[in-house]
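Tokenise the fold.
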Amino acid sequence: MPNAPDQLPDYMSALITPPETEGPATVSVLPYNSPTQGLASEHSPLTDCRGGRSRRASVNLDCEAFGKDALLEAYYQNFHKFHPMVLPRLHLATFLDNLSWRRRLEPLLAILRLLGTIYLRHEWSACLQNDVESKMDWLAKADPIRVQCHLLYSAALFWQDEKSKSQTEMGKAVEIALELKMFEREFASTHSNEDPILAECWRRTWWMVYVFDAFYAGTLGSMGFSVVHVAATADLPCDEAQYESGDIPEPNSLGEWDCREFDQEDKPFSSFACLVGAIRSATLARDSSLKSGSRKNPHDVLHVADSILDSWMLLLPKSKKQVMLRNGDIDELLFQAHHLIHVVMIGFHRPLSDLKFNAVEDISSCARDPAPDGPTPEHINVHTVRVLRAVESQIRLLALPSRPFNHTPFCTCMISEGTLALLSACKFLLRGDELAVARDQIRLTIGCLKSLGALWPRAARNVSQIQTIAKHVLGIETHSSAAAAADKGASPLATCASGENESSCEMASLSNSHVFSTMRDFDDICGWYDIGELDSALPFWPADHEASVEK
């Protein structure tokens, strides 16, 4: 971890304190029901935005322009719900009323507009991208707003399939966050001038660094992400409704989360806190499987991992048991957390289950290497049921009655991992009505992935890869491939469909040059688990398998 400077430049305090207005008009971002709010509410810009009258004409003009910005509106209605880090819209409008903050926030606004145009116009704007990159230079390197900018820009680039540039941006976000020691509890309080909303914003910024870093690590095939071992003491974020309203409660600590099993009554942990907890559980489960002593029973290792993952689900606060809210909205952070837990469960158990790895999966880094031939693993049925239940749980999340399917693109890889396991079940395990149901579920997962692919080129590439794998695993031919096979003779896949030896059919399908000509670049889909990193004592997990991190 880079060493943080002992003392930041003098200008740092000016960069990280909330704005003070000029003249008699007082800016306040305290909650409207706060006892002190009434002292300042008469001339608060937030009041002015909601129909009040300001003594400064620029306030109404700025608020009106901000309120009519369709790209910002698109950002807040979409991407902000998935990764709620920046100030809520009304509070951001307050800060924009201050000239010094306005200039600092312009680079962030440019990135929000870039993301907004993807949702509003379904296109990437080179003009807005240039605006982002030119305005980023306005920010001092020690400005924590720069961390938010790098994070969001990194995500936009990554799902536009610009991985290298995206990872550079992510590296900058991590570097600055560590240099500023945003992971320390004192950072939020010290640099918010007792403004609870700004303090919450800084807490969320650190934990979003943590979340994004984990998501990238899982997506690119290595769970060893860079900030995992940072000794973070930052308090956990509050619930989204509280953040939006400005009514920020006393935050829960990480220590309280780790001791939640002893609470007589549920503490009000937020969905954001549950997501952070899910990532920590997944990482701890992974670590429990690494370098376990050679004398340790490998199944005991898995039992430890299972207990960690199961405890996350069992100890969810009662208020967080439902992913769908009463009004029909999806709790996006819980949605992500559940998908993450399920995909890690799939990764641990599939190598020891009846859900064999299809040879054609080898052309995708979304799949892990199959287990070497050997005796049937002990408790194979337990592992198979574990995988099937995790896949079933994913399907239930995808089938929630909320359409259109609109979630973070980082779910792409988690859904894909479950789809590959479900494809294996269709080929090797399920028959009759169960097979028919599973095929419908595959249609659902691919349909959801296509919705994400309509916005994000990287997700679209993922859809194409999954479709190609699925067709060959299930022995399905398109009209064009069938015609080509008729010209050249019998198709190997046709033989598969007639019931001949499955393994030979798979190898025949691999020899079909059409497979590879359509796949072209399978350098990555995703990889939320890497069995090559697990202890060699575990059966069927090769010790010499290299981590499948993208080159």
